[in-house]
Design brief:
Layout: H1 2-27, H2 30-38, H3 43-73, H4 80-114, E1 133-135, E2 142-144, H5 145-158, H6 171-204, H7 210-246, E3 265-267, E4 274-276, H8 277-294
Antiparallel strand pairs: 1-2, 3-4
Helix pairs in contact: 3-4, 4-6, 6-7
Length: about 300
């Protein structure tokens, strides 16, 4: 019992040390915080980021409840795998939601750049071509186009990559990259869970009950599924890149449809999104150049 409490105490102390160090960096860097306050993001971006913060807070509460339950019922033959698996699933859920939130904010930043920063601050509706002083047709909030452009310009200057590393990628590539990252996490996290679990089982007990054995087998299945999905996503991205090279970047950035032989300004026959062939080619060429410079591994 004392050994189990010691392991729990070490985990809690490590968490609080990391939390205190992170808080200290924020406390002793007031200049950076003041800069962030002066460059307030548009409300529509704030809403997207707040959703992520709420989910993270809920995840921390669930982790605390799990820890308290583990301490309370540890003497009732509670296997350590139950607690560790719960933490692993929380990590996977957090990564999945974080990538979803990053995709929402990145898409808003991308749309603002494409619309010459004429994007409603409250709902993300494109204000391009509308009067300079009017109300947004989507949400009804009044706007001044000069103020809208100034706020989007300041925010994008402070966040050149939006909220995700794939903000400069074509939307179809960005979606696949985020999904692949989630599946990689879903494959790597159970590996760590299994390693810690087997170590604790070897230290705390000599036999493994059937339920724990089934959970371990399911973890191996989870790892295999996550790795296979990540490989499949990677191959799909590589096929799109190869097709972009073959078509000389004339590939729809939303669905990957080949635009060769179509008018320079038209709608994609596959997804119906309007396009300009020069912007499409520029988007693909910039992404592939940045990808080659970063030398992205599998």
């Amino acid at each position: 019992m004392a050994g189990r409490l010691r392991y729990i105490g070490r985990a809690i102390s490590l968490f609080f040390r990391l939390f205190i160090v992170r808080s200290a960096k924020v406390m002793f860097l007031p200049g950076e915080e003041e800069l962030k306050r002066s460059l307030a993001p548009p409300p529509v971006v704030v809403k997207a980021e707040q959703k992520e913060h709420h989910v993270v807070a809920l995840g921390l509460v669930l982790l605390i409840i799990t820890g308290v339950a583990a301490i309370t019922f540890w003497g009732v033959k509670t296997q350590p795998y139950v607690v560790i698996a719960g933490v692993g699933m929380s990590v996977i859920g957090y990564k999945a939601w974080k990538q979803f939130g990053a995709g929402v904010v990145s898409r808003l930043c991308r749309q603002a750049s494409e619309a010459d920063y004429c994007l409603c601050l409250h709902c993300g509706y494109s204000l391009k071509g509308l009067p300079d002083d009017h109300r947004c047709p989507e949400c009804g909030n009044p706007y001044n186009i000069a103020d809208v452009k100034q706020q989007w310009t300041a925010y994008l200057a402070a966040h050149p990559a939006g909220a995700g590393a794939s903000a400069s990628a074509p939307p179809i590539i960005a979606k696949l990259e985020r999904k692949r990252f989630v599946f990689k996490t879903a494959a790597i996290t159970p590996v760590l869970v299994l390693a810690v679990t087997l170590m604790l089982l070897k230290r705390l007990t000599t036999s493994v009950d059937p339920i724990t054995r089934i959970c371990i087998y399911l973890s191996f299945l989870f790892i295999s599924a996550g790795m296979l999905m990540a490989v499949w996503m990677g191959r799909k991205i590589n096929r799109l890149i190869t097709q972009a090279h073959k078509t000389k970047y004339a590939l729809c950035i939303e669905c990957g449809y080949c635009l060769t032989g179509l008018p320079d300004q038209h709608r994609c026959p596959e997804c119906g999104i309007p396009y300009e062939i020069e912007q499409v080619k520029q988007r693909w060429s910039e992404y592939l150049a940045s990808r080659a410079a970063r030398e992205i591994p599998w």
